[in-house]
Amino acid sequence: MRHLKAHRKLGRTTEHRISLLRNLATSLINSEKDHIVTTVPKAKELRPFVEKAITLARRAQHLSGDDVQVQKVHLRRQAARFFHAGNRAFKTEQSRFRGKKGEAKDAIERTAGVKAVQRLFDELGTRYKDRNGGYTRIIKLGRRVGDNAEMAVIELVDNPKELAAKG
Are 116 and 26 in contact (CB under 8 A)? Predict the structure, then answer.
């Protein structure tokens, strides 16, 4: 019996699997084309993972009441656990050691996880404000030449390219 065995293990330990899903989610959200190419089992595991994060961003659009800012910060922090690297990273190794103490802050940029959370709440939350789920689509591509793995594209629906094609 398969009780309480809902997800695929993808041949990895729990920590590695969660890290893989966070990396894929960060890549999908930060992608300029709103899609990534991966294997079918990974895409099927990624879909509910990303949709839960988008639902948190969508929920932030519908907030009302006295403590809206507190609730938005709470939702952002909840969504941050779906992505890697919520800290800052240096652009170059030399910029860390250049100049006085305060000058190194100019050379700091946000990492991919922070950019993903920002895009999630600024752009995707408003894009899917009126949509009740189904934010992603999986399109099967066939099999990869090297190892015959079944490949798929996972993409965000209602992306600007798709809307332009509709007219």
Answer: yes
Q: Provide CB contacts within 8 A for 47, sequence distance 6+.
A: 136, 138, 154
Domain 33-166 has CATH 3.90.1030.10: yes
Task: Dig out the tokens for 68 from the structure.
Answer: 């809206």
20-37: pLDDT as tens digits: 999 999 999 999 999 999
76: left (phi over 0), alpha (psi -120 to 50) or beta: alpha
Kindly report, residue by residue over 90-133, the tens digit of the pLDDT.
555 554 555 555 555 544 566 888 999 999 999 999 999 999 99
pLDDT of residue 86: 52
Q: What angle do CA 40, 44, 49 make, to 5 degrees?
A: 140
Residue entry with tokens 């709103």: 34
Residue 21 and residue 45 in contact, taking contact as beta carbons nearer than 8 Å: yes
Neighbours of 134 (CB within 10 A): 11
